[in-house]
Amino acid sequence: MGKIAYVFPGQGSQYVGMGYDFYKEFHTAADVFHSAETALRYNLTDIIFKGPEEELGRTIHTQPAILTVSVAIYRVMRDMGFPPPQVVAGHSLGEYTALVVAGGVELFEAVRLAHLRGKYMQEAVPPDRGAMYAILQLPPEKVEEACRMAGDEGVVEPANYNSPKQTVIAGEKKAVEKAAEICRQMGGKVIPLKVSVPSHCSLMKSAADAFRLKLAQTPIKNISIPLVQNYTAKEHTMAHEIRENLYRQMFSPVRWFQSVVYMVQNMGVDTFVEIGPKNVLSKLIQQTVDKVRIFNVEKVEDLEKVLKAVS
Question: What reaction does this enzyme carry out catalytically (predicted)?
Answer without folding.
Answer: holo-[ACP] + malonyl-CoA = malonyl-[ACP] + CoA
